[in-house]
Inverse folding.
């Protein structure tokens, strides 16, 4: 599936970002975070699992920039490697739920009415569970692991994408060019793949960008509750949980675990909002 | 006369709506002979679009075909399996729609869409692009190489309609259905598109079913014409017979109302008084009765049937039948 972006998309995005300092800040922040987590093995000054009991819960120092946790592990290294977990979860969960959501949404929006109704009922059923309750139930059934977290996020995110796709597909299905395609003998699959999908894709990427911090927050939340990654693997959520237990002794673990969450949330939100402003059809000029 | 490409017999289609069942087409019969251009003329809401949708079997879900047959080269289209019907569309039967601005996808390039139309030909992308370019040249588009990379909003309406025609003729269909292809264009372009269709029709040798509410265009282009009113055929025949010697009062009034025929300057344009009958509660007898200046007792009592030899008319008036 290839979507050829309208000519000058890259130029348009960079030009718009220059005019939007907040969007630019988000873009830079997102870029830095991505770079830092991808390069974690080279950037991290220590092994994130290396225990140093003589140096527990220390504040920032030349050796440990963000201090150490209750076992004397280097916080900066743990935060960097924790970012890998967050990124892995959000990438896998968002791409999978988006792919399934797009497929189901197009089927619901384009298919017969009974199928649309059936899919809507199932979307609403999933959405009606509080996510944490759903996650607790699943973890109770199959045990805590990173894959469980990813699975839970995928299942609960599919309806979000599917609903957006369904509405957009319904708006498109009555358009003349879809009828013209049918009159040219195109199959339903071809119409969905070649004509509906490219028309609904841009807003989905904006939605996905805005979804990254939500998913990372969800992973952190589940890990905080002990439902996610198992120790000693670092995750921003488990860092926060450890820090919470020793908050009376040192504030640094909480600060170290919380800062990247705040940065990711702000970065992706600003970036997503900038993207939305660029691609919003109401702001989009014909010659743009 | 050569064998017909399209033969519609007694086609009756109705829509299921909240107001009940609306009979949009009633006993429509028409024939498109091989290599000829047949025009369908009638005012908005007379069922022209429903008729086209029925021929390509893309009626909206609430429409139902209540009777009649549509034969394409001898095959009954209404009895074909959906897959067979789909393989005919775009290959044997192509369609050009009214508004070229909306009948092309806004987010794909012209080249991509023209290559897509050739999905049945198992050839390389560059071969497809070469065919697209040749086709664009045939419809008179300059600088074809650059056009393939453009998006629909970068082209004018006239250019887009040429692209749409090029796409429709790509597979050299036996039947081209043109649904008011010039209505969204201005008058100069209209003439150009008509000339283009004429030339291409001679080239490709296809038949054309041409729908319009513009009598001038029909007179210019079509070999035969079918006049529709409120879902029925009221008159049909060779174009010069029907337009020179109209027999049905509706056709006559329609011709009188054509602004091109009005020689003197006037502030009062002629109109056909009244409006289309409500399809939900059709009056008995002749459907045009309530707007007809020449109605008489028999018009209310009996529905006139389409009769006559090559010039057929549905009217009780003695001079019409004569």
């Amino acid at each position: 599936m290839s979507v050829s972006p309208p000519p000058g998309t890259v130029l348009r995005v960079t030009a718009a970002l220059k005019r939007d300092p907040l969007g630019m800040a988000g873009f830079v922040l997102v870029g830095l975070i991505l770079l830092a987590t991808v390069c974690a093995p080279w950037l991290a000054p220590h092994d994130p699992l290396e225990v140093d009991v003589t140096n527990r819960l220390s504040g920032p120092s030349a050796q440990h920039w963000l201090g150490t946790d209750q076992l004397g592990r280097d916080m900066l290294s743990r935060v960097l490697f924790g970012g890998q977990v967050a990124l892995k979860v959000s990438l896998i969960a968002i791409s999978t739920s988006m792919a399934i959501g797009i497929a189901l949404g197009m089927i619901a929006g384009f298919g017969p009415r009974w199928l649309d109704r059936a899919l809507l009922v199932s979307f609403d059923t999933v959405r009606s569970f509080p996510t944490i309750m759903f996650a607790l139930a699943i973890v109770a059934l199959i045990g805590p692991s990173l894959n469980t977290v990813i699975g839970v996020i995928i299942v609960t995110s599919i309806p979000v994408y599917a609903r957006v796709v369904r509405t957009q597909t319904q708006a498109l299905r009555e358009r003349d060019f879809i009828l013209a395609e049918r009159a040219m003998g195109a199959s339903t699959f071809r119409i969905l793949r070649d004509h509906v999908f490219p028309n609904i894709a841009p807003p989905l990427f904006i939605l996905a960008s805005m979804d990254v911090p939500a998913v990372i927050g969800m992973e952190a939340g589940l890990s905080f509750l002990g439902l996610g990654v198992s120790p000693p693997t670092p995750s921003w959520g488990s860092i926060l949980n450890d820090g919470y237990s020793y908050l009376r002794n040192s504030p640094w673990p909480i600060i170290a675990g919380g800062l990247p969450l705040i940065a990711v949330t702000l970065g992706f939100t600003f970036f997503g909002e900038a993207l939305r402003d660029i691609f919003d059809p109401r702001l989009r000029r014909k010659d743009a | 006369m050569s064998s017909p490409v399209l033969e519609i017999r007694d086609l009756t289609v109705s829509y299921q709506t909240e107001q009940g069942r609306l009979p949009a087409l009633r006993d429509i019969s028409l024939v498109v002979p091989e290599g000829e251009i047949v025009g369908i003329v009638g005012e908005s809401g007379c069922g022209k679009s429903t008729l086209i949708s029925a021929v390509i079997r893309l009626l909206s879900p609430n429409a139902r075909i209540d009777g009649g047959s549509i034969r394409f080269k001898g095959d009954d289209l209404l009895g074909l399996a959906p897959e067979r019907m789909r393989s005919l569309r775009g290959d044997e039967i192509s369609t050009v729609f009214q508004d070229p601005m909306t009948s092309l996808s806004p987010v794909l390039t012209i080249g991509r869409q023209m290559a897509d139309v050739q999905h049945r030909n198992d050839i390389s992308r560059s071969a497809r692009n070469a065919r697209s370019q040749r086709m664009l040249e045939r419809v008179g588009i300059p600088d074809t190489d650059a056009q393939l990379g453009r998006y629909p909003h970068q082209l004018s309406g006239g250019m887009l309609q040429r692209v749409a025609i090029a796409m429709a003729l790509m597979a050299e269909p036996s039947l081209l259905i043109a649904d008011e292809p010039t209505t969204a264009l201005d008058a100069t372009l209209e003439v150009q598109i008509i000339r283009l269709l004429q030339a291409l029709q001679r080239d490709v040798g296809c038949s054309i079913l041409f729908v319009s509410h513009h009598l001038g265009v029909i007179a210019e282009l079509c070999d035969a014409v079918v006049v529709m009113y409120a879902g029925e055929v009221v008159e049909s025949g060779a174009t010069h017979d029907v337009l020179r010697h109209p027999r049905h009062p509706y056709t006559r009034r329609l011709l009188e109302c054509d602004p091109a025929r009005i020689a003197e300057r006037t502030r009062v344009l002629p109109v056909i008084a009244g409006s289309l009958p409500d399809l939900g509660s059709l009056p008995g007898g002749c459907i045009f009765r309530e707007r007809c200046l020449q109605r008489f007792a028999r018009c209310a009592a009996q529905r006139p049937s389409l009769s006559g030899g090559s010039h057929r008319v549905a009217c009780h008036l003695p001079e019409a039948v004569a």
Summary: Chain B touches chain A at residues 56, 58, 86-91, 94-95, 97, 99, 102-109, 112, 116-117, 119-120, 151, 153, 164, 167-168, 177 (CB under 8 Å). Chain B has one domain: 4-92+171-321. Residues 46 and 105 of chain B are 29 Å apart (CA to CA). The mean pLDDT of chain B is 86.
